[in-house]
Specification:
single chain, 127 residues, alpha+beta, 2 domains, three-stranded antiparallel beta sheet, two-stranded antiparallel ribbon, 4 helices, 5 strands
């Protein structure tokens, strides 16, 4: 089943490492094969990774965009996750943080990114 991207005018996204920008009208793309896609709104800049949850998100985002689960990106993730776990008490958020590792082990980088996104939202909401 293809992935359907509905794009706003001038919206950008990353597709397998390439930054692509939509034109001045709304557009729809259908991706017929597997690809690493991340919308502009989901891309975190390095200077924005200023909390434990955001640092973890940034590390997973890097692995997702690069398609790599080893090397420096993995080391950055391990460090960020350790810091994040130190801030969380037992419960749903801690389980979600541990779920990030489970997703990575199974090769589901997008799933790991989704778990991270929820933790960043929880952190922003003051939970």
């Amino acid at each position: 089943m293809p992935l359907k991207l509905s794009l706003k005018p001038n919206e950008s996204f990353v597709l397998n490492g390439a930054v692509v920008r939509n034109g001045d009208r709304r557009g729809v793309l259908l991706l017929e094969t597997r690809a690493r896609v991340l919308r502009e709104k989901d891309i975190l800049q390095p200077e924005e990774a200023n909390t434990p949850a955001k640092a973890t998100y940034f590390a997973v985002m890097q692995m997702y965009l690069l398609g790599q689960t080893d090397g420096p990106a993995l080391e950055q993730f391990e460090s960020a996750l350790t810091s994040l776990l130190e801030t969380l008490s037992p419960g749903e958020q801690r389980d979600r943080a541990l779920g990030i590792s489970a997703c990575l082990v199974s090769g589901d980088l997008y799933g790991a990114l989704s778990c991270c996104r929820r933790l960043v939202q929880d952190e922003a909401g003051g939970r």
